[in-house]
Amino acid sequence: MLAGIIPTTSKLPHTSYLILLNMGGAMNKNISKIYISADHRGVGLKLYLIEMLSASGYQVVNMGTDDPKTMVDFPEVTRRATDEMMNDNASRGIVICGFGGGAQIAANRFRHIRCTRCDNPDQARNDRFHDDINVLALSAEDIDVEVAILTATAFLESPFDAVERRIRRIKDIS
C-alpha cells in the first residue's frame, strides 16, 4: 500500500479506517473537490490522505508530487492546488510540506486563499468557524498520520460562522 513512503516517524495506522467509518458518513457534500499537493517530504502523508478522504466519498484531486526521491519546491506544488481553486468557490485545498509553514505562506500569496497550518482537529475546526479557511496546511514532519486525517476531516466538515463581523473581516483581508 504505502509502505516505504510514510515518514519513518509515523506508522500507517490500521485504526484510521475505523475512525472514518465511525464518523457516520459526515462527508460535507457542499465541497466540490479537494485539491491536495505536497512537496517531496509530504508525499507519504498526501497519498495517505488521498486514500482516506476518497474512501470517505470526497472527490480528491492529486496535484503532485508523487515521488519522495525527486526534490520539488513547496511553492510550485502549492500553486498548482491554489490555481485550481481560483474558479471553484466550493472547493477546498490541502497543502503539505516539511513543516507546513512554507506551504501556508505560499498559499496565502493568493487573494482567494485563506490558509492556516493546523496541528490538531480543534485548530482546524476553530479556523473554519472563525476565519472560513479554505486551505489547510499540514506538516509532514510534525503530525502523526492519525491526527492528520482527523484534522483534515475537521477542516472539511466544520462550518463557517457567517455572521456580519466575520464576513466583514474576511472581505477586509481579501
Please write out the topology.
Blueprint: H1 15-21, E1 34-38, H2 43-55, E2 60-62, H3 74-85, E3 92-97, H4 101-107, E4 115-117, H5 121-131, E5 135-139, H6 145-157, H7 164-173
Parallel strand pairs: 1-2, 1-3, 3-5, 4-5
Descriptive notes:
Strand 1, helix 2 and strand 2 (60-62) form a beta-alpha-beta unit. The protein starts with 14 loop residues before the first helix and ends with a helix. It is globular, with a radius of gyration of 15 Å. A 5-stranded parallel β-sheet has the order 2-1-3-5-4, with helices on both faces. It is 42% helix and 13% strand. The protein has helices spanning 15-21, 43-55, 74-85, 101-107, 121-131, 145-157, 164-173, and strands at residues 34-38, 60-62, 92-97, 115-117, 135-139. It is of the alpha/beta class. It has a single domain, classed as 3-Layer(aba) Sandwich (Ribose 5-phosphate Isomerase B, Chain: A), CATH 3.40.1400. The model is unreliable at 1-25 (pLDDT under 50).
